[in-house]
Amino acid sequence: MWFVRTKDRAYYYERAEGNPLSKDDKPPRETHEPLNAQAYDNFFAEASRWQQGAAVKPEDTPVGGIPGYDGFFSLYDQGSSRQMLLTLEDWAVCENKKCEHWQVGRLAQALMLIPRFAKK
Fold first, then answer.
1. Beta-carbon contacts of residue 100 (< 8 Å; ≥ 6 apart)
2. Of 23, 50, 93, 118, which is the most exposed, with the fewest CB atoms less than 10 Å away?
3. In this structure, is the dihedral angle defined by the CA atoms of residues 64, 119, 33 and 5, taken in order, positive or negative?
4. Rounded to an integer, what is the distance from CA 2 to the centroid of its chain?
5. DSSP E strands: which ranges in the chain?
């Protein structure tokens, strides 16, 4: 996922490969579209306040999940930038290792501020 904000507009780009765990042969999927700039600004204001979470320990990782860090969030605003590593728990917080019951993580929750990602 890649988000870009210009003076007047906001954009979203995503490229998703096939799932290596299921060894599918699906071709990469690409999405690119404009976003509501004010909704993006609301998302950015929320996410830019966060501090990096602790890496998920292998023994605490749900089945099929990725231990440690599994992505990064790069923030740039008015000449300053910083990066924050993301964990599985930024997307979903599982009740146990089977992840039968879970709650939306902070990144997934903040993305719902943008209509394209809101629950339908």
1. none
2. 23
3. negative
4. 10
5. 2-5, 10-16, 29-35, 71-77, 80-86, 92-94, 102-104
**Residue at 4: amino acid letter:** V
Q: Count the residues in the chain.
A: 120
- Enumerate residues 6+ apart whose C-beta is below 8 A from 96: 62
Give the domain extent around 13.
Answer: 2-117
* Count of CA atoms in the C-beta half-sphere (13 A) of 104: 10
Q: What global pTM score does this model have?
A: 0.80
Q: If we measure between CA atoms, which residue out of 51, 45, 39 comes closest to residue 10?
A: 39
- What is the percent of the chain where pLDDT is above 90? 54
Q: How many domains does the chain have?
A: 1
Instruction: Give tens-digit pLDDT for 11-62.
Output: 999 888 766 556 667 778 889 999 999 999 999 999 989 999 999 999 999 9
Taking the C-alpha atoms of residue 73 and residue 52, their distance in angstroms, rounded to an integer, is 9
Q: Distance between CA 54 and CA 56 in Å, rounded?
A: 6
